[in-house]
Design goal:
Strand order of the largest sheet: 1-3-2
Shape: elongated
Low-confidence stretches: none
Structural class: mainly alpha
Number of helices: 4
CATH superfamily: Winged helix-like DNA-binding domain superfamily/Winged helix DNA-binding domain
Helix content: 40-55%
Largest sheet: 3 strands, antiparallel
Mean pLDDT: 91
Length: 104
């Protein structure tokens, strides 16, 4: 999910993906190159991302990745699932500061 979120705004190369994932999680996730590229390979095999040429003028030595429409659909579905989990946690008073969606 972190990779899909990092690609939701546009194409990125591996190092930029690592930086974006670290930034979007406030440093909680710091993927190493091995785990990042293994994840990229799995997402490509599943058709959720694709390799791309990058933006015009991009460094041709780097591999760039982009999210596919199927990847966006999967990310949307996962975001909805996560919201339901958070809603349940809030309803059970397990998420301080959150209120169940039904009470908002």
């Amino acid at each position: 999910m972190a990779i899909l979120l990092a690609l939701a705004d546009g194409e990125r190369h591996g190092y930029a993906l690592m930086q974006e994932i670290e930034a979007q999680t406030d440093g909680a996730l710091r993927p190493g190159t091995g785990s990042l590229y293994a994840g990229l390979q799995r997402l490509m095999a599943d058709g959720l991302i694709r390799e791309s040429a990058g933006e015009p003028g991009a460094d041709r030595r780097r591999r760039y990745y982009a999210i596919t429409e199927q990847g966006r659909e999967v990310a949307r579905a996962e975001a909805r699932r996560m919201l339901r989990v958070l809603d349940t946690a809030a309803a059970k008073n397990l998420a301080p500061g959150l209120r169940p969606l039904a009470s908002k």
